[in-house]
Design a protein that fits this description.
Blueprint (H helix, E strand, L loop, with lengths): L8 E6 L17 E2 L2 E2 H11 L3 E7 L19 E4 L6 H12 L6 E4 L9 H11 L6 E6 L4 E4 L5 E5 L5 E10 H10 L6 H7 L5 E4 L10 H16 L2
Parallel strand pairs: 1-4, 1-6, 4-5, 7-11
Antiparallel strand pairs: 2-3, 6-10, 7-10, 8-9
Cytidine-5'-triphosphate binds next to α2.
Length: about 230
């Protein structure tokens, strides 16, 4: 009887952006959110997940902030890599190269700016995809009615929202395939797009809108409310 190889899972957290749309001097991943730097929330969830072996954090080579924090609570799982690039996809690709993973290892790429990720989200993603030939991503079906506008901000037409999803992270692919895809197609805003450019079809795993990305100042308030509310129930 053939024994199936054991799957290895790593997380890789791109955190080398400036957060221009947040409009702060401090990059948004370090802004205080519910009493901690924003990035700590995602790192806490990823490091607490038993299935994940290593959590790589991709920082800007000029980052002087991260090493000012006490990160001992994350233990040996956490591995900072000072190799961020000009774009998110460059940061992910540089991180994959520096991490020196086995090509068949799974890597869960998660934005530092999605602090409301839960263990349930992670477990669902891993269990739905661990035997998948391609991999995939967390996403939510579009709920609102969609309008296309003209340049003056008036409705041109209403678009069908059928089978439309909003992509989230983590996005989970085999390390070798993802590195190959990002090398071939670097001009993408998420990992799945690079995989799609190879002609493959990542699987969509339904998640919750609460796993949103903190982009604008008002998102910070929403994330704070959510995290504080959850804290009351643990
Ligand atoms: N990211 C990165 N390297 C870059 C750009 C972005 O690692 N050169 C990371 C960000 O730190 C963030 C994630 O990719 O965790 C998602 O990107 P986004 O939300 O767009 O963050 P920023 O690029 O920092 O924000 P903005 O686009 O508003 O400048
Ligand atoms: Mg950006």
């Amino acid at each position: 009887m053939e024994i199936a190889p054991v799957s290895i899972f790593h997380a890789l957290v791109p955190a080398a952006g400036f957060g221009a749309r947040m409009g702060h001097d401090l990059p948004k991943q370090y802004l205080n959110l519910a009493g901690q730097p924003m990035i700590f929330h995602a790192l806490t969830t990823l490091c607490a997940c038993e299935q994940i072996t290593t959590v790589f954090v991709v920082l800007s080579p000029e980052d002087t902030q991260f090493n000012q924090y006490d990160v001992s609570r994350f233990g040996d799982k956490l591995q900072p890599l000072y190799c961020g690039g000009e774009t998110r996809s460059e940061s992910v690709l540089n991180g994959l190269s520096a991490a020196e993973l086995e090509p068949d290892d799974w890597v869960l790429v998660h934005d530092a700016a999605r602090p409301c990720l839960t263990q349930d989200h992670l477990h669902k993603l891993i269990s739905k995809l661990r035997d998948d030939p391609v991999g995939g991503l967390l996403a939510v079906p579009v709920a609102d009615t969609l309008k296309r506008s003209d340049a003056a901000g008036r409705v041109l037409q209403t678009e069908s929202r059928e089978q439309l999803w909003q992509a989230q992270t983590p996005q989970m692919f085999r390390a070798g395939l993802l590195a190959h895809a990002l090398q071939k197609c670097p001009a993408v805003t998420d990992d799945a797009s690079a995989i799609e450019a190879l002609g493959l079809q990542p699987k969509l795993v339904a998640c919750e809108p609460t796993n949103f990305k903190v982009t604008y100042p008002q998102d910070l308030l929403l994330a704070e409310l959510l995290l504080n509310e959850r804290r009351k129930h643990v």
